[in-house]
Amino acid sequence: MRSSLVAVGSIAILLCNLVAPLPARAQSASPGAFPADDGPATITPTLTPIKHLVIIFDENNSFDHYFGTYPVATNPPGETPFHAAPDTPAINGLTPTLLSNNPNQANAGNPMRLDPSQAATCDNVNKYTPEQQAFDNGLLDKFNLTSATDSASDCAAGDFFAPNLAMYYYDGNTVTALWNYAQHFAMSDNFFDTEFGGTVEGHLNLISGQTSGLVVMTGETASSTTIANDTVINNVDPIDDDCAQPSSPTGSSPNVSMTGNNIGNLLNAANVSWGWFYDGFARTGFSNGVATCNSLYNPHYAPFDYYPSTSNPHHTPPSSAQAIGTGADAANHDYDLADLWEAIDAGNLPAVTFIKASSPNTGHPMDSTPLLEQAFLVDTVNRLMQSPFWKDMAIIITYDDSDGWYDHVAAPIVNHSTDEKNDAIQGTAGTSGACGALGSGADNDRCGFGVRLPFLVISPYARHNYVDHSLNDTTSIMRFIEYNWHLGTLGSLGIANDQQSFDVLASGSIQGMFDFNAAPIPENRTLILDPTTGQVVGPDVWPY
Question: What are phi and psi for residue 121, nearest 5 degrees?
């Protein structure tokens, strides 16, 4: 009965949003809404106590895949135990009905638990059209049909594979650190990918809220499953990157650059320091004006290189630790992760810091595992907490896309598209699968919101053991940056294409996950975890 109600409710929400006009960003006075921006004349340089924002952007996991049964872990013998605090709030997770009588049962079976020995899994299909097909008018019942793994190309030796792989999930015995961060800080159970689709779309939306307005390298062409209507709908490499892969011999996967602006341009205009720190960005050689990179380097993880104004095509290192974040040299805000630690050791942390792990540590199926991801996250968060900047820092952990993993919540469709070939919300792609009616002046092939993703806020100011239910998406992060440093929106820079950025469509605010009125806020409110087990080894100090 509960399963049927979930499906019907999802359809009702979906259909309502498909016929509604494209909404403006919510301006309500509800908890967590944005108050008025007082502009640059504000007494403090930020509009909240957060002076340093760190965004850790990991790979390819849906909310249900990591948190579906939170806060209840199975705790079998021999696995890392997890026991939730008795006052842990409820989430919109996998109910007993969804676990035993799932809408996907006819196609794929019910959700199944993965244990730590199955941390290495094959990869699912996660692209613009297949994710809409799984959505299926809000029924969310075709994940195995659309996300089905090709065991030949999407698996590495020893990876766990099952025909219904997309329906599998982990609990706190494997993703222990993430569950412990949720216990002691704040998480959301209503945060969505801005659009349906994969890695490049997720990264572009994080920094610009925009996947339209691209330029294809001269002499190259693209297939309609990669680029449609001047919009990125699959992974493509940037033109401005020496270490990008050359286009395919058939020209079906061209190199591109993006027009318009990104959040870096807004930060530069306001003289706010920032940087993208990618573990693997450092060049391994430089000859005849061209850089070479480590074989693990992935240009999809360097989104600012898609924009000529914020690219570092030759992977030029910073001139000094003090220059990091300033744009005073040819590094142009694009760095290796090692540069971040050098800067912090020198007493310099940019106001806005993006962190990207190397491929083996992102959590991406086939390339990484939740256990390797956990080790990276814990090492990184521990080090940030122990820095002198922790007292006014907020750390966000979230993901670029869902990898096709099952999630049972149907997002509202706030941006519409009528590309008969590639859209499949309302039917079959190639016939009548439109994603609502395209708004006046809007671009096709940006259907969203997409799949629900994990989202955590770790900060001295984060609420304790708190679950936020307000509607947010990837661009809500950019919206917080714009608000906190009173930057305006991308459209304010005067480029017509920026007017379509999702930053002005962000449905809510992540501010509800903070408590800026609590006093006193102890500077030593830290939570030190073991990187191997994810268990607590240091105090969480807080006047509860």
Answer: -120, 165
Is 139 part of any domain? yes
**CB within 8 Å of 292: residues ≥ 6 apart:** 242, 243, 283, 284, 285, 286
Alpha-carbon gap, residue 539 to 527, rounded angstroms: 6
Q: Give me the CATH number covering residue 140.
A: 3.40.720.10
pTM of the model: 0.91
- Is the separation of the CB atoms in 363 and 285 below 8 Å? no
Domain boundaries, position 9: 2-211+260-272+351-513
Does 283 fall in a domain? no
| Number of separate domains in the chain | 1
What torsion, rounded to 10 degrees, do the Cα atoms 193, 354, 61, 147 define?
Answer: 60
Contacts of residues 343-348 at CB distance under 8 Å and 24 or more positions apart, as own/partner, are: 344/383, 344/387, 344/389, 345/321, 346/321, 346/322, 347/388, 348/321, 348/322, 348/324
Q: What is the pLDDT of residues 55-114, one digit of tens each?
A: 999 999 999 999 999 999 999 999 999 999 999 999 999 999 999 999 999 887 899 999
